[in-house]
Amino acid sequence: MSLLDVDGARCFQAMVPMRDGARMNTFVFLPPTARPGDRFPVILQRTPYGITDPLLPGGGGPAALTDPTRGWLPDPAQPMRGSILRGWRAITAHGYAAVYQDCRGRNGSEGEDHVYGDDAPDGFDTLEWIAAEPWSNGRVGLSGSSAGATTALAAASTRHPSVQAFFTQVGGSSIYDDVVYEGNSIELERLWLWVANNIPGLSASHREAVKARSGLSDAELDAAAARARERYLALDGARHQRPPYLDCPEWMHLPLLGYPEFSVWQPYLDELISHPAPDPFRAAHSFRATIDAPGFHATTWFDIFLTSVLAAFTEIQARVGNQRLWIGPNDHYFVYETQYWTRDPWFEWFGLWLKDEPAPIATEPAVHYSPRCWVADPATYVPDDWRHAHTWPPPGVTTRRWLLQADGSLTDGEVAGGSATPGHGTRSFRYDPAHPVPSLGGRNMLITAGSRDQRPVRERPDYGLVYASAPLEAELTIAGPVTATVQLSSDRPDTDVVVKLVEHRADGKAMLLMDGVTRALFRHGGPDPRPLVAGEVHEIRVDLGHIHHTFAAGSRIEVDVTSSNFPRRARNTNSGHPLLAADGPGDLHVATNTVHHGAAHPSFVELPTLPT
Questions:
Q1: How far apart are the first and last CA of the chain?
Q2: Is beta strand 476-490 parallel, antiparallel or unpaired with respect to 410-412?
Q3: CA 176 – CA 277 distance, rounded (Å)
Q4: pTM for the whole structure
Q5: 396: burial class by Cβ within 10 Å (0-12, 13-18, 19+)?
Q6: Which of 204, 273, 415, 498 has the fewest CB atoms within 10 Å of its CB?
């Protein structure tokens, strides 16, 4: 081991072998005072985004990928930003060894990229290597943000004995149940835009594997990469169309399987979208199911990974305890802003678990959250109103049922005596997958996210149904999971049920708060498809996620029911075919979907309500 001196650390690079012989490009940074025989607690961060800084003098290139003196550091003007958190200079200054690693098939690492498919065993093998190194004291923390959080959770799921704690933010803890699919509907925008934008980071060994499988030459692969970039730019630019997305051939292309260029460079993409219902493949990638280490979880109310982060916190806290959850306002990227944080708990958390240092976070309530889910001007936001709670949802929450009525009203079930006596009847809408409802806000990643005015999409003649309460006489605060139950009949064997919760403010704006989806064919949550039967009424539950929000007095609570939210979610073709990803243009069918109301078939939304 030959150490190089950089400003603030001593470092070296290693190609760490995995169990199959593939080697992962790894940088190790030790405190500047490190001498032979010194042992340090270690913080490991693995990422698909690269562990070097391409903006350093000299540019990039293959040699730069394995040069630890070019190890990534955060911009001093944005110290919270990055898949790797806090950077090696700050980590070594606090007396830790910092370990960075390129994920399999990415940048300087060998092997083929399988989009998190290998991160659990690769994480374990890396931890084995660290534990045997002479500079490690055997106490390891895992860290990362977004994709880096997912790789950390994957490593934590292996229960390697060296792992003492993890700190993860805005990342997925169950890739296929929470990220690739929600409600068994494919989450299209995050897949297509993320995969396409990350083709340039695929490694030389991944390229060789693609060549061997496809039979393409180097020139043909390069041409495919160029076309993939053009497709990405078209997909990304479609948000500026009016209406957005629907006139973009790249978004409207079917089938999803074998998508041109994307599936050439990332063949695993087809695997990801070929598991339409829960199965052993999906279960194997639920990392949170086997984690038992103390964990810090951070997210935002409009983060694409919100439900996944909350599920990880809830399940691990119930199983082993020692978890912390922080939830801020706004979208996935707001966690990278300094003003998101009431304080920076990163070194405090690792000091507690890797160095046995006393820390305020050890005695604080487990949950710390913003009561505002969205702030319109994030640049001036001050996190001075966050609250603590021992649990999520916070104590005192009761479930309040609001009834969807046949006249389009939304009525408080408590006021109505808890029964659905008024409003018997039905309301119908037409869903044509050739003309889906464009996405406008919500928990999106790379298209417009957040609380957005729904009036532009509601103006569409094929939008769906809107249910509105009377103006609220007083404020109403909700905190926790929101669910809807829709009694539905359809003339097609399959369709999607999309439900939105909206605050229609006194100024006329209809602001989206949250949305959810359930694919009707798999509405029971099991692996077997159950087609809808024409003429029969089927109960469909839709989970909208979690929120803390206060409806203003004078606002109306509104619930929208439709069958598309595109391209946030892939279109249900209404074909009834279990593998929607294989459907082509000829499989598109128009559905007439009917919502039923009344005592026999009550449709409703359940709001977790805090007392006033």
A1: 63
A2: unpaired
A3: 10
A4: 0.96
A5: exposed
A6: 415
Categorize the per-residue pLDDT at 53 as very low, low, confident or very high, splitting at 50, 70 and 90. confident
Distances (CA, A) of 556 to 84, 411, 416, 502, 607: 42, 11, 17, 8, 14
- What is the dotted CATH code of the domain comprising 398-610? 2.60.120.260
> HSE (CB half, 13 Å, CA atoms) of 506?
10
- Identical fold, 4-174+286-389 and 398-610: no
Q: Where is 228: in which H helix or E strand?
A: helix 218-237
Q: What is the pLDDT of residues 5-51, one digit of tens each?
A: 999 999 999 999 999 999 999 999 999 999 999 999 999 999 999 99
Domain ranges of the chain: 4-174+286-389, 179-281, 398-610
Per-residue 3-state assignment (H helix, E strand, C coil) for 180-226 = HEECCEECHHHHHHHHHHCHHHECHHHHHHHHHHHCCCHHHHHHHHH
On whether the 4-174+286-389 domain is CATH 3.40.50.1820, my answer is yes
Do the beta carbons of residue 390 and residue 365 sit within 8 Å? yes
Tokens representing 282 are 């999906």
- The model's pLDDT over 331-374, given as tens digits with 9 standing for 90+, comes to 999 999 999 999 999 999 999 999 999 999 999 999 999 999 99
- Per-residue pLDDT tens digits for 294-329: 999 999 999 999 999 999 999 999 999 999 999 999
Q: What are phi and psi of 210, to 5 degrees?
A: -65, -40
